[in-house]
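pls read this stuff:
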Amino acid sequence: TVIEGFLGPIDIAVVEATEITPDGRVYLTTGIGNAPTFLQCAKKVIVELNAYHSPRLRELADILVLPPPPHRSPIPIHDPLDRIGRRYAEVDPTKVIGVVHTDEPDGGRRFAAPDEASLRIADHVAEFFLREIRSRRIPPEFLPLQSGVGNVCNAVLSGLASRQEFPRFKVYTEVLQDAMLDLIASGEAIGASATALTLTTEKLKFLCENLDDFADRIVLRPQEISNNPGIARLLGVIATNTAIEVDVYGHVNSTHIMGTQLMNGLGGSGDFERNAYLSVFMCPSSAKGGRISTIVPMCSLVDHSEHSVQVVVTEQGLADLRGLSPTARSRRIIENCAHPAYRDALYRYLEGAPMGHIRHDLRRCFAMHLNYLEHGAMLPDLDLPQFEPHRAAGTP
């Protein structure tokens, strides 16, 4: 949208780099993102030279800026680790109005150890993928994996890698975190393509100290390449992302609590979910000590449509929705994914809804959300002690 001009002119771009040359080569740091496009489109540019980052990070970069339509050619990426561009972005030197020197780490966030619910979700996902391989719906060498951000996705990555029968795999994703770097270092993952590193200080130091080992196994690309729908479809990417809530027909809200309060951005989940070979969404079945069910009659906000959500997973189980009618989808989600304490209420909602191809009662579809806002629980009379806290693995 920037290069096409939909957002209007870009006055000033501030871009972090390890080096800028007199002829306008800009060597970026841990994030490629949209920086190459901003450098091209902005009227003026300020370059922040961050001495904290190793100049060798350029060895990971693979930068290509696509021209606007209709002048594009097919992008020649046939493997997640293919390289098609340069190690630097480019800027017209006359646009650079300043260079700022800094020495600051990224400050990547460390995630807590996976809790019991996350580990159960990881087991369900691993078993599902292995069944798909045995049934030959997924090839024996597996397919490139896209992984979202957070404890649940990290638990799934670790769960896949811990299975001896699971093949070593490649990753085509948006963001590379600590867990993925560990899998590459151990050889359980062959390599990864992303647009940015979001590593803790310790892991970034480890990466830079071992770039001889990682330089040909990690590729950082512009976001319009890392999240490109055509590449995701060509590679057959398997998308695994987290949800805030899922409704009984498979719509997913992954960004806003109660449909209004921003929890996190959409990121690249939509890019991958809509174009993946297989699209998986995961979340615990309950939140806030059981006061919230993440399986609801109707999502308070829809980020991902039922038409491209194929698999839903909670610690209770996995619902494969492929090829099912709306009624069959709803019953499979309730039976396999909803917390047992909420199943009867969800079934009552369906059975009380007017008949139709998709059964919804517009008078009651948000009753559980309204109960939470008014009474602090989606089912105010629910016996909450049955919801044991999900403890981290190894804690008493």
